[in-house]
Design brief:
- The chain has a 5-stranded mixed sheet.
- The two termini are 34 Å apart.
- With 339 residues, it is mainly alpha-helical.
- It is elongated, with a radius of gyration of 23 Å.
- Strand 2 and strand 3 form a beta hairpin.
- The longest helix is centred in the C-terminal third of the chain and has 27 residues.
- The chain is built from 13 helices and 5 strands.
Amino acid sequence: RLSKFHSSAVMGLQAPSSWPTFSWATVKKHNTENDAWIVIKGYVYDVSRFLPDHPGGQDILLEHLGTDATEVFSSDDIHVHSKAAWKLLEGYRIGIVETANVLEVQTTKKYNIDINKPLLYQVGDLGNDYWEWVHTPIHREGGIRLFKTDFFEFFTRTPWWIIPLLWVPISLSLLFVGFQNSPFLILPPLAYVTGVFFWYFMEYVIHRWVFHIYAGSYKMNLLHFLLHGIHHLTPMDKDRLVFPPALGLVVAAGFLKFFSLLLPISVLHGFVGGLILGYMSYDLTHYYIHHHVPLTQHLRSMKTYHMDHHYKNPDAGYGITSKFYDGIFSTLPEPRTSS
């Protein structure tokens, strides 16, 4: 039902005859974590596969399995849902409840794009519609395809464990080189810690002014989609979340060269090593809050905060590890309303 990126929602009170009809007795039986149905506005949705990835956590869904969840889904006072959430919901629709009056469901704009074909060859032609399209997330098992050839496609997917496997040795090696080049033992660790904290400023700068650079032309659409757009389109794709290592190595070499023009050799390598450690904490935190239930209050808060960035307002809430620089630069999102 996601073969084309457009709404399959039906307007009006008549349900389409093609949808299977289920009794309430049948719906109520599907009320477990592995067999999870809900009803919204007369439509039946099987959300079993989506429970672990629900941006608001699965607990709120578990409370309403096998029941009519129209009120909780539609009410801003209980749990706010954006147009993007309604779009995601469409992919899990399996039928209607018998004797139900099927109510009007929010629809989304149609785009001339085929989600089953490699997207890199299509996004440029969206023009000014690209920005709205890429910020209407979809949830698609197996992800989406960028390239026609498997060789290039391979380099667009990165499992999370590659990040510490690659970058921990590099970060520590740079710190070791720092000790070799410093006349004072205290300088490399101080530079290392400074690099870590400087990264958190760079995290904000890169996310806001590089990853969210406005697109609209053919070339800018391609650039944005490769840098960050694909993550906003499919935010729960586990293999398209952390930064690809091949590109990361190029960026790291560029940082080392750039800071060599600004910093003395006694602190250079320690500082860049700290930057890399800060980057790792950012990328792994980013993955964790997308795909796990956080154990600490801070990370639970950041998960909610970041999911709002994806599903409600991509022009606010740029922080991943903290909200500090959003406060400094006045990009904190509007506070949630809840009861």
